[in-house]
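Internal ticket #5521
Category: modeling
Description: The requester needs a full-assembly model to guide mutagenesis choices. All entity lines are attached below as received. Residue total reported by intake: 583.
Assigned to: D.W.
Attached entities:
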Amino acid sequence: MIQHSMFHEKGPVFWWTGLAGVMAAGTIVILFASLVIESVPVFKAEGISFLWGVDWFAGENYGALPMIFGSLAVTGLAVVMVLPFALASAILTSEFLSGRARLMVKAAMELLAGVPGIIYGLMGISLLTIWVRDVFGLIDGNTLFTAGLLLAVMILPTIMTLSEDALSSVPGELRDTALSLGLTRMETVTKVVVPQALPGLAGAVFLGIGRAMGETIAVMLVIGGIDRLPQPWFNLFAPGQSIPSKIGREAAEALGFDVQWSALIALGLVLFVMVMTLTFAGNVLLRKAR
Amino acid sequence: MLLVLFGTGAWVLPGLSGWVQVFAQGSTVIRIAGSTTVLPIVSRAAERFQSRHPSIKITVNAGGSGVGIHGAGTGRFDIGLASREITPNENQRYASLHTTVIGRDAVACVVSSEIFHAGVRTLSKRQIGYIYLGKITNWKQVGGPDRPIVVIDKETHRGTRHVFMHYLFGNSKARAPGARLVTGSNNEEQAKIAQSDSAIGMLSIAWMNEDVAGIGIHEGGQVIQPTLDNVRNGRFPIARNLNLITAGQPAGAVKLFIDYLLSEEGQRLVAESGYIPIHSPHAVSRVAGSHSK
């Protein structure tokens, strides 16, 4: 009897959601496994120095460092540039705007968050590269900085709107209590609401980072496309290459075999691990912060 | 768990190809992709050809010569477009590749129009080589304005790059340490040179326009301009065949389409696209350099 009722409770909904969960987890496992397996040839050819080799020439040498550096540089740049604006506008929208104005801002931001990368890419190639060149007096505007700036614009709506969700889901009672205890409006925000919303804010930032790291076409069009470390390394006004942009440029040619294909898969693996590590580190930091 | 997923995959894939067949019922599809140099000819020809043979559908995609040769070899495409010859390495990989030449083209060394108007009208092979090697970095070193040179390279598998590097250094895979940017298609290269006021690059002569000027090559005491006439009479040094690559001898609908390209009408399209026909000597309507867009 009891067994039967348990089975009954685990009816279609249980099995359906369970299957979906297993498939989601399975996809990750299979993806990771196939990335690892297909990367083997390049690690056999280049050894582990694939990771810090600085020269990449299809058919001869495969060194991933310029691409790894490029990805980190443009993502880091984007986050640094976007954070103050995204958080400030999220706080403004959640804490200081009237209900109606808030909805309008939210709607606009969510609309922007859904704009495909290629649209930003076209804006980037036709306007941003030229502005960057003229404003900073460069010989050419296709640089790591340009890509970072474009990514900052791209991830602003994502980070802003998710941060706003996190802030506005902090219960109103907390604000009322803080205000009735004599805190000012600003103190309520910085001392009560933001700390409460921290996990959500961090989640928003990590999602933004994820989008920035994986963005292909927009970056490909403005980064310069050259597999070379800048000289000196911190000169972000030099052209470079990111991992997705490199894969985007070479995948069709290398499709399916040879060390070149394996090298591109290995780049994908590196990107995968980078995003995983960041997410993991973010979670750990959050747990410590609380 | 793995079984579940693989099972799903095995289910979906035949399902998809089934759908494709349903959509394409009663028609043959010719899949074409590759060189953006050959592409303008083929997309024009495909349009006309399809209106005459409604049962044949043609898809045309870009990608570059490497992609075209590779795709024809693996069977991903029925025809690969290539603006260079098949390398020994590629021939080794795919034994049966067959080449049909449909026209001729040249690769010009091009500069931003600002540089051209500032007086850089010709360069020697040695000068261009030094620019790509990073030994010449300012336009004033070659008689131009005092401005750094934005050297534009191309992706290593591109036909244009193979031909250009072979001319400069005798090695189609030569490196270009002087490069500042790497571009892919002819469009992209053309756009980046036009955007800059101090760029140098390599471009099929059919893609030159008022913002992207072809310069004369100084060779053996004379200057050879990148004009179709000079390509036709063999004087311009960086010329090449425009190739259609198939796996084995073309047959069926593919052969029908290739024969169309080789027909008088097809060859007229080659000329209209700014290239040189191989068969009957049509008058070429455009002079290289005046071809806009």
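Resolution: model delivered.
Comment from assignee: The mean pLDDT of chain A is 89.
Ticket closed.
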